[in-house]
Amino acid sequence: MKLWAGRTGGDVDERLSAINNSIGFDSRMYRQDITGSIAHAKMLGRVGIVTPEEAAQIVEGLEGILADLESGALEIDMTCEDIHTFVEATLTERIGTAGKKLHTARSRNDQVALDIRMYLADAIDHLTRLAKDLAGALCDVAEQHLETVMPGYTHLQRAQPVTLGHYLMAYAQMLLRDIDRLKDCKRRTLVLPLGSGALAGTTYPLDRAYVAGLLGFEGVSLNSIDGVSDRDFALELLGDLSIMMMHLSRFSEEICLWCSWEFKFVTLSDDFSTGSSIMPQKKNPDITELVRGKTGRVYGDLMTLLTAMKALPLAYNKDMQEDKEALFDAIDTAQLSLSVLAPMLRSAVFHPANMKKAAARGFINATDCADYMVRKGVPFRDAYRVTGQLVKYCVDRDLTLEDLPLTDYRQFSLVFDEDVYDAIDLLTCVSQRKLPGGPAPEAVRETIRLTRQKLSAAGPDSD
Fold first, then answer.
1. 226 and 255, same domain (yes or no)
2. Is residue 407 assigned to a domain?
3. Is 53 in a helix, a strand, or coil?
4. Same domain? 89 vs 129
5. Which residue range forms the structural domain that includes residue 132?
6. What is the DSSP letter of 275?
7. Which of 15, 81, 293, 412 is the most exposed place for a label (fewest CB within 10 A)?
């Protein structure tokens, strides 16, 4: 069955079917297609386009198809052109003539636009739940490591002391923004296109607001051409997922580095590690390497849809069918990546002693040494210069600032006294940074509290 048979006979070259048919990928939207059709049928009966009896018959038939698909009693016919064709054909086969009236006042153009908006809204909810779970895992692990001192880095060089808790909460903040972007994207996604027809609306007296209310949409599209011919909501989601995957990739890169013997800050559970086919000693962080690699797929999906849309005249063009595979791939990839990182993180074993050892050898308390001099009345630039000379002096003698005798300190400045050793103690360096957002344990604890508060208010918690 071809919904467009009439102007042409409907019989096409098999190669056209191969490139034209979309049921191989749009069949995953069966639930949204049927739910949207149920709302459309109810509206048709409400405004008198079909009789109340016909509307009830159509709704009952569609509900039966959905129930049978969910239970496995009915399988989707993959020879159909698309999911819309399959549903309508099955409905007509089951209830007869009334099934042929379902498509009244509707085009596949506004139907598919509706289906994809509904599908993306559901996907956004699922992505939000997964992102919240990962952010929650970051909070849980961070809370266990409020005083686990480690080096903070710039240019991948040891820079200043922080804590593992503070470090992990940086990624939690990124995820909070990712969640906020998803929430904002959903608001623009839930604009009802149904009623736009092919591009010019319809002469039937539709109640679009009623359908929007049934489906949980926040409003209706205000231009029928725009309603069927743009995919900026889809592009927005792909952009949001690209940013999220970038965050996951950066986190994955940290884990890859930290798992190496050169760092050895963390050991992943055997459940989330692989080995080598030839080197028996290897335990590889493949999970984070794959997330890092899959980020490029999502970037590619964004570029696919941007390129497909960039030169399309209004209104609908079949190029737009290319939106679904890119969208579905990006959604699947992001969902998989989020779902594996949370349990990986919760089961990981961190090594505070190795972190502290790394922190102790990098002169990451040099800034605090300079600040000590400033508090003694030395101008910052002079303090900066003296501290730099102290670091060079220590490097030449294989010493640390903590090991350097006070007599050596005083060769560089007489402001140094015994209290310098407390000032440059790594935990002191961290604990003194109490400003909101800082690495002090009490500041990180407050960040965790606020983050959990935001996560609690951020949207769906369960499927």
1. yes
2. yes
3. helix
4. no
5. 109-357
6. -
7. 15
Per-residue pLDDT of the chain (463 residues; tens, 9 = 90+): 555 455 455 566 677 566 767 899 899 999 999 999 999 999 999 999 999 999 999 999 999 999 999 999 999 999 999 999 999 999 999 999 999 999 999 999 999 999 999 999 999 999 999 999 999 999 999 999 999 999 999 999 999 999 999 999 999 999 999 999 999 999 999 999 999 999 999 999 999 999 999 999 999 999 999 999 999 999 999 999 999 999 999 999 999 999 999 999 999 998 887 766 666 566 888 999 999 999 999 999 999 999 999 999 999 999 999 999 999 999 999 999 999 999 999 999 999 999 999 998 889 899 999 999 999 999 999 999 999 999 999 999 999 999 999 999 999 999 999 999 999 999 999 999 999 999 999 999 999 999 999 999 997 876 6
Virtual torsion, Cα 293, 294, 298, 303, nearest 10 deg: 40
Cis preceding linkage at 458, omega within 30: no
- Indicate the residue among 54, 85, 104 that finishes a domain: 104
Positions marked catalytic: 155, 276
Placement of tokens 């940074």 in the chain: 433
Q: For position 275, which CATH number holds?
A: 1.20.200.10
Q: Are residues 183 and 69 in the same domain?
A: no
CATH number where 84 lies: 1.10.275.10
Do both 251 and 278 map to the same domain? Answer: yes
Are 391 and 363 within 8 A, CB to CB?
yes
Quick one: CA dihedral 32, 37, 38, 39, positive or negative? positive
